[in-house]
Structure formats: C-alpha cells, structure tokens
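Entry 14. Structure prediction run on the chain below.
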Amino acid sequence: MTSIRTLSISLSLRPAALAAALAVAACALPAQARDTLELGGSASRLSAGLSDGQSTHLRGSWALGQETVVNAELMQERKFGERGGIAAAGVTRTLDEDWFVSGALAGGWGGPNWNRSRIDGAVSRKWGAERRWVTTLGGYHARFDAGRSDSGLRISVNYYANHFAVFELGATLNRSRPGNVHSTMPWLAVSLGEEGRQSLALRVAHGREAWLVMGDTALPVDFASTTLGADWRWWLAPDWGVVLRAERYINPSYRRTTLGGGVFMQM
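Output returned:
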C-alpha cells in the first residue's frame, strides 16, 4: 500500500470530535505529502426551540519529511446561545513500516459547551502482506467547567480495499465524571474516491452519551444518540478545491441539522 487518505474526517464540529479527529492516525504517511490549508464554516438548525448555531474554522496539515505530519485547527463557534471555540494541534509519526503513533492537544474557551483542555494519544499497526488492515488503540482525557471531565479509549479497524475505497469500524468507550458514568459510541465509516480528483466520506455513529450539555446546563442523563455525516471533497484544480459537509444529530431532547463547506488549497 503506497498511498494514504485520512478516513476519519471531523464531520462533527463538536470540540470532542475535533480533537479526536486530529489524533486519529492514518494508514501510513504519503511518500509525497502536500501541505494543505482549509478555511470554512457551517450553520446548524436545532429543534425544541433551541437557538441555531454557526461556526468558522481554519485548519492545516504540514508534512515534515516523509515520516511526520502535523495538523492544527482553530475554530470559533456559536451554539445554544453561547460563543466559544477551540484550538487544537496534533502530530502523526511513522516508526517503521508497520507501526505509527499520533497525539493531539486542545484547549477551549466559552463555557461548558467546550472542553477547557484535552489530550489524545494513539498507536496503530498495519497487518497483512500488503498492509491493508490497520488497527488503532487510543486514549483521551478532557476537562470541562464545573469539575466535569471525560476520559476513555478509542479502538478502530481500517481496511484499505483498494486505491478507491477505505472502510473503518470503531468505538469510543467513555467515562464521565462526576458520577463515574460509562458510555459507548460505536461508529462505521467509508471513504470513496481518489486524492486530487474527488472523495466522499460517509459516517454513522450510534450509542450512548453520559452528559447532555445545552448552554450553561450540563445534565448527567445517560442518553442514546445517533450521528450521520457526509463529507465531499472536490478538486477544481491540481492545487485547490472545495469541500461540502452535512451532518444530522439526534437525541431524545433535540435534533440538529448542520450544513457546511469550505475552500482548501495544497502546496
């Protein structure tokens, strides 16, 4: 396997998903990685009489040689009537032909909707004669206002079927405090397309969450939720293009529909 596409794209603009996406390692580092910058935003409509949301982001990816890739993102967001944001940075490094590791740090501001600090780490291994299978084991810890925190494990398996299709199955095993509440969020994702032309990433997650955060209120209710996401990336020229994103989030208290997009350039 000589090429790579990152399968786990930050389809959700929630801070936890943002930091986690930076920490998820890819199958290998590309032989000729290109630096990338993306500027974009999104708008969200919520049910149950809740205030609509919006966000803007600037993210980048830089290759340091053939063994290391650095990612960074700055996001400002309005949701549940509050304004805040998050800054995150991550790195993925190849150790040898089979092993690679990744890590990320993030800090946020604006209240209980955004984590004050977060750290992620993961180790991945490629399997098989053609190294089409990749397993990843990661961990994280996030702190929020009012003494609330999340910590847990992320496990996933990727299969690179060919140069066009990548499949991923994984789960997040989370513990929330106070209350020591455990929750599990499995997900399934597929990435189709070719770098430099078009790509489409689809993702579905269904499981349980321990805390329901809406503005200044954080309730330990242990509820089920479902997230559906799509990310379409289209190169209009060899060094730039556009990306369109859509997400649907459902829980017993409200529903959220998010549409977004942006422009990216490669150097």
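The longest helix spans residues 15-23.
Filed with the rest of this week's runs.
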